[in-house]
Amino acid sequence: MATILREWSYRYPWFYDGVIRLAALTVGGETKFRQLALDGLEITPDLHLLDLCCGDGQATRFLVTRSAHVIGFDASPIAIERANQNVPEAKYVRGWAEAMPFEDQQFDLVHVSLGLHEMRPVQLWRIMQEVHRVLKPGGVFTLIDFYVPVNWLYSLGLNLFLLLFETETAWQFIKTDLLDLSARVGFQEADRTLYAGGSLQVVHARKGTQ
Ligand SMILES: C[S@@+](CC[C@H](N)C(=O)[O-])C[C@H]1O[C@@H](n2cnc3c(N)ncnc32)[C@H](O)[C@@H]1O
């Protein structure tokens, strides 16, 4: 279930960005929110980064400050067009995350911000396999997305947010163990850090070097 607010958030960039800005106050503001998944990673300008489900380039904007080789990828032609205008420093490719048109072992880092909660379980499985395939040996997958809050106040906030803006996939997603999923697709190490009372998770998973 979702409401008209979901449609508005896709139709009007100012509305989506405003909602995210408001929600990001729970972690200290949008700039902080957009960098949480990158914290602790050594990203040098020569690394090849993929912003998967890049939307209008909201997170791509931060990736291009770290590397000169950033590709934004999204299924929506409108999102790709807006991202191109908003963050021209990156290159963009349109397609489905379940079947990415990239070579094996092309990227050092694959980043997904608020993208995977939109996927059905079978899509999620396929996308995780694709992420593993396109990463170089030793490459890192990093994600920021919703999770199950640990206290009632954040639980109330997240439930309200999901009711207003999201569909059934988000409710399923927060119960999915991404560490287990990462291990099953072949990642060697994975860890999760929780923010905003547990309503946000950052997952880092590293591909083995063999
Ligand atoms: C909620 S937006 C996230 C935008 C941005 N990354 C952010 O952090 O604000 C989710 C994006 O995922 C894209 N998307 C949804 N399903 C997809 C799929 N199967 N393959 C590629 N992109 C997809 C949508 O077009 C949308 O732009």
TrEMBL record:
Gene Ontology biological process: methylation
Designated name of the protein: Class I SAM-dependent methyltransferase
A molecular-function term among this protein's GO annotations: methyltransferase activity
Domain of life from the UniProt record: Bacteria
Residues of the Methyltransferase domain: 50-139
Entries under CDD domains matching the protein: AdoMet_MTases (cd02440)
Keywords for the protein's UniProt record, in alphabetical order: Methyltransferase, Transferase
Cited Pfam families: Methyltransf_25
PANTHER family: METHYLTRANSF_11 DOMAIN-CONTAINING PROTEIN (PTHR44942), METHYLTRANSFERASE TYPE 11 DOMAIN-CONTAINING PROTEIN (PTHR44942:SF4)
